Amino acid sequence: MAGGHDFVVVASRLPVDRVGEDGQPPEVQWRPSPGGLVTALEPVMAEANGVWIGWPGSAGPAPEPFGVGGMHLVSVGLSADEVRDFYEGFSNATLWPLYHDVIAPPMFRRPWWDAYVTVNRRFAEAAAGQAAPGATVWVNDYQLQLVPGMLREIRRDVRIGFFNHIPFPGYEIFAQLPWRRQIVEGLLGADLLGFQRHSDAANFLLACRRAAGMTTRGSLVRVPPRDAGAGTREVRAGAFPVSIDAAAFGRLASREDVRKRATVIRNALGEPEVVLLGVDRLDYTKGILHRLHAFSELLDEGRLRSPGSVLILVASPSRERVEQYRLLRDEVEVTVGRINGQHGELGSPPVHYLHQSYPREEMAALYLAADVMLVTSLRDGMNLVAKEYVACRDDESGALVLSEFTGAADELVGAFLVNPHDIEGLKDAIVRAATISPPEARRRMRAMRRRVYDNDVAHWAASFLAALKQAPGPG
Length: 475
Ligand code: G6P
What we know:
Elements: E1 5-13, E2 16-18, H1 26-29, E3 30-32, H2 36-47, E4 50-55, E5 66-68, E6 71-75, H3 80-99, H4 110-130, E7 131-140, H5 147-154, E8 159-163, H6 171-174, H7 180-187, E9 192-195, H8 198-212, E10 215-217, E11 220-223, E12 233-239, H9 246-253, H10 256-268, E13 274-281, H11 288-300, E14 309-316, H12 323-343, E15 351-354, H13 360-369, E16 372-375, H14 384-392, E17 399-403, E18 416-418, H15 423-434, H16 438-454, H17 457-470
Parallel strand pairs: 1-4, 1-7, 4-6, 7-8, 8-9, 9-12, 13-14, 13-16, 14-15, 16-17, 17-18
Antiparallel strand pairs: 2-3, 5-6, 10-11, 11-12
The structure holds 6-O-phosphono-alpha-D-glucopyranose.
The site of 6-O-phosphono-alpha-D-glucopyranose has 7 residues, from strand 1.
């Protein structure tokens, strides 16, 4: 079983959004969704005759392979039960909370694991069917950790990379997973495993030793042969911090219409002295309640004034059928209502809460309108919003308050780093960021911008693929 593509990307989602109806031609039904991963991989895909394998995002049979914006896309279909058990269940109610340090309790359900195995096999078979002899296959994220091992069983000739976009937890936490050995063995089907931070890679190497009894030397894992025909393999695990298309955000932020929109936003808010901004998926890992509590106390204590200080809270809808997400939404909405009830005046609530998703132009305008960006994640693989804010601030003004529990904290040294659990510390950092002097803001922002522009998403993809090429490879 071999296909004709020399480069295969496997991710849980296709890089497209559905905009049309069934029955219309695919070019009309689907529009590319401009995520970082696509931007980075598009040139590689074009050059290497690439294909992207993923789930189109709703239950039902897979549409036929189609092309959008010059990309070849192959869909993997999920039934309604699989959406429940594989996507909402094992991926987002077991692995997601477990890998984010059990901020919410992970649920361990055997039928969910069975669905995870079944769906991972479907992705692996799809990849095996598309990859040309000797192709490079790049598998992405926690939803697909069994794919490298399953693919290697079918196709020994391909070179497999895996990148984990979310944290890899410490062993005491990972060890809770009843299927920890299978997950480690599945991942070790890859030739190269990429993580966001060195600590994630170190956690994984420890899991290899403890959960699967492997030996490691530096960043290499020795994987004994699975059967008589195979040799011992060496698999490398390392840190490759993901990034954004910084120049594209810079271009957006310098567009006349976007700059005007930023002015209109500040105007609509009543020209406040300080605009604070938070942008996240509505997810319990993001520390949205911690941020609200800190803001509320600052208003209580008069350290921030209302009107005068405004918090824009963009919390885009996410995984809405998963219980923990529903509970969080209720709590956020009650808290916003309480703050606005207590501190608002007619026509000027202190919190502007938006449970919506916006196009990138609007996001860039919001970044330009905000004096202080608040990223308060309790745990976050990278946090690309922090990098987007920095990329847009071309006049080097503005300040970033950034949780030390994000991957971005390793890189964005010009941020006000915070422990979001420490509400007093968070409040102090918000006040310092809101009252920063222009020279200090410039100094901090300049350092962060250099980093984000140097280590952009193209650099990230190129360094991962270069390391994959050099990895010991299929044996
Ligand atoms: C995180 C994950 C991605 C995921 C995205 C959106 O960034 O790392 O793998 O696709 O969230 O989540 P969703 O459940 O909508 O795919």
